[in-house]
């Protein structure tokens, strides 16, 4: 009997199965109830914005199937907004942030949970990759406050870019050619 168990590998979950794209529900049902609720709190905030779109993407052996939301401005430019990694052992919330955004965040006003995630963020390709594993729902709500700040920052940045482009077109001046 033990030989038979050795020959049959354990069943793979929807999160682990590379060749079969799971649904959002399949990914969430694998999580513990409090972890699922945390992801639902974060996704509920993102569902409120018309500028965010949700995708389920395979990100390799580390993150496997990941829920990622992208921000799209009025010009159609896209930026990664948030990643939710539904790892059953340790679900991750990952927020890529630019240095310009971090400078606008009042770190002293944030909870220690959020502040520590930002301070320990790894930097790669001009982005700081902050990660958290929220426990109680209050920590997910603290992350929603940070997401609101990021969304406002991206909207202001988009509006500034639009105003600059309109001014360049309106006064007859063209931006210098790119080299």
Could you describe the 3D structure shown?
- This protein has 179 residues and is of the alpha+beta class.
- The chain has a single domain, classed as Aspartate Aminotransferase, domain 1 (Alpha-Beta Complex), CATH 3.90.1150.
- The protein has helices spanning 2-7, 24-28, 33-47, 60-63, 99-104, 112-119, 137-170; strands at 52-58, 65-72, 78-85, 92-97, 122-124, 127-132.
- The protein has a six-stranded antiparallel sheet.
- A hairpin with a 5-residue loop joins strand 2 (65-72) and strand 3.
- The longest helix has 34 residues, at 137-170.
- The radius of gyration is 20 Å and the shape is globular.
Helix and strand arrangement:
Layout: H1 2-7, H2 24-28, H3 33-47, E1 52-58, H4 60-63, E2 65-72, E3 78-85, E4 92-97, H5 99-104, H6 112-119, E5 122-124, E6 127-132, H7 137-170
Antiparallel strand pairs: 1-2, 2-3, 3-4, 4-6, 5-6
Helix pairs in contact: 3-7
Descriptive tags:
179 residues; alpha+beta; Aspartate Aminotransferase, domain 1
């Amino acid at each position: 009997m033990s030989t038979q168990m050795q020959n049959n590998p354990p069943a793979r979950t929807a999160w682990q199965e590379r060749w079969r794209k799971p649904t959002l529900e399949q990914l969430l049902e694998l999580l513990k109830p409090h972890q699922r609720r945390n992801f639902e709190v974060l996704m509920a905030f993102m569902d409120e914005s018309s500028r965010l779109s949700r995708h389920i993407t395979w990100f390799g052996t580390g993150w496997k199937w990941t829920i990622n939301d992208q921000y799209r401005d009025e010009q159609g430019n896209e930026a990664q907004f948030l990643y939710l990694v539904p790892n059953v052992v340790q679900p991750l919330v990952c927020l890529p942030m630019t240095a310009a955004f971090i400078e606008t965040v009042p770190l002293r006003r944030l909870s220690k949970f959020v502040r520590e995630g930002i301070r320990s963020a790894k930097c790669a390709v001009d982005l700081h990759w902050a990660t958290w594993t929220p426990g109680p729902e209050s920590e997910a709500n603290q992350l929603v406050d940070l997401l609101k700040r990021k969304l406002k920052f991206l909207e202001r940045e988009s509006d500034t870019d639009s105003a600059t482009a309109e001014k360049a077109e309106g006064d007859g001046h063209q931006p210098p050619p790119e080299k």
